Amino acid sequence: MSSLVDIKVTVVVPNWNGEQYLTECINSLINQTLKPSITIVENGSRDGSLELIKTKYPELGLVINKTNLGFAGGVNSGIRKAINEGTQFVALLNNDAVADKDWLKCLVLQIVADEKVGITTCKFIDIDGKRIDSTGDFYSVWGLPFPRSRGEKVDDSKNLSTDIFAASGGASLYRVSMLNQIGLFDEDFFAYYEDVDISFRAQLSGWKVKYVSESIAYHRIGATSTKIKGFTTYQTMKNLPWLLLKNVPGSQLWKVLPRFNVAYLSFYLSAIRRHQSWFATKGIFVSVFLLPKKLLQRRRIQRNKQVTSAYIWGIIYHDLPPNALKLRRLRTGWERIFGNSNNN
User: Fold this and answer.
1) Are 179 and 12 in contact (CB under 8 A)?
2) Which of 14, 109, 140, 185 is most buried, judged by most C-beta within 10 A?
3) Residue 333 and residue 259: Cα distance in Å, rounded?
4) What is the DSSP letter of 152?
5) Is pLDDT at 284 greater than 70 in this prediction?
6) pLDDT in tens, 135-152
């Protein structure tokens, strides 16, 4: 631990109507073996969250947003505060998550061991401790991100520390010097895939993302997003095209885009069947409306790319997500018409 004495780390906890989870989350951070600064972002809650924070934890940093800025906007406000206070690393932890006592120490030890690592992420486990929520994220040649190891039984031997494509924003650590280079989370995303977007930008700029198996946190999946009808559908249809068009290098865009269009249409038809066509249509409209802005961002991102397109193609996932059963059937039909692409 002596090598970590002079390192300043801040943990940012975004909160929106999470009063019932906050105490357990914050206490898990207070009890970390590596003591961080803690900043709670009160993101326009209408429950008793703000009163709880002021009453039980007056010593903690606090950012009060009058309206809900989403995950991306919320954590950005906390990250900016931490950077202004001179922190070197910023960790994020969902308000519905609980960190193991060595969660932060393990993340910090791995990031300081290699100056090329810009992000470290943990083993995120379901709150009951039986199944894995994620060990980071993949990005596939179909333009679809998805969690690594989701649903697998907790088993250390199968999930060793390794370089990965992307980190879950729900429980990860970010190097401030990297954020100063690539920028913070894209606030237009609001929620969903903003963590894959920032990891993609990090990869394009030559940074590494690392999964740390010894670092563990526990998560109540969907505790926040399920509070709003149609939220997941809207955010998915809005954000997926941006993630693709901002980040996939031009030489590979033509390979990914046709597959993505098939998947995107499938998602829209699925939303219609689930009586969520309004949310899906609204997501598409907003995505198209802000497309010029995203294309300008793409220009900057691709102009500053520090790795080859072949490198990016080598680290993305060359298949459909494992649970994309309907898309697998669609792919079979695709290959009957156009031939087997072998995912290349």
Assistant:
1) no
2) 14
3) 12
4) P
5) yes
6) 999 999 999 999 999 999
pLDDT reading at 157 higher than 90: no
Q: Which amino acid is at 228?
A: I
Residue ranges of the alpha helices (H) in 10-64? 19-30, 49-56
Q: Tell me the CA distances in angstroms from 14 to 78, 132, 258, 326, one per residue in order.
A: 8, 22, 36, 34
* 170, 213 contact by CB (below 8 A): no
C-alpha to C-alpha distance for 79 and 84, rounded to whole angstroms: 9
pLDDT in tens, 222-273: 655 566 789 999 999 999 999 999 999 999 999 999 999 999 999 999 999 9
User: To which residue do tokens 């995120």 refer?
Assistant: 124
pLDDT reading at 328 higher than 90: no
Using the 8-state DSSP alphabet, how is residue 50 labeled? Answer: H
Structure token pair of residue 35: 């003591």
Would you say residue 338 has pLDDT above 60? yes
DSSP bridge pairs for 140: 317
Phi, psi for 197 (deg, rounded to 5): -60, -45
The answer to whether the beta carbons of residues 27 and 120 sit under 8 Å apart is no
User: Stretch 59-70: mean pLDDT, rounded?
Assistant: 96
Q: Which residues contact 292 (CB under 8 A, 6 or more apart)?
A: none
Q: Under a CB-based contact definition with an 8 Å cutoff, are residues 89 and 121 in contact?
A: no
What burial class does residue 160 get, using C-beta atoms within 10 Å of its C-beta: 0-12 exposed, 13-18 middle, 19+ buried? Answer: exposed
**In whole angstroms, what is the distance from residue 101 CA to residue 133 CA?**
19
**Predicted pLDDT of residue 226:** 60
Q: Specify the 3-state DSSP secondary structure of 34.
A: coil
Q: Which residue, chain included where needed, has tokens 């060793």?
A: 160
Which of 213, 203, 114, 132 shows the shortest CA–CA distance to 166?
203
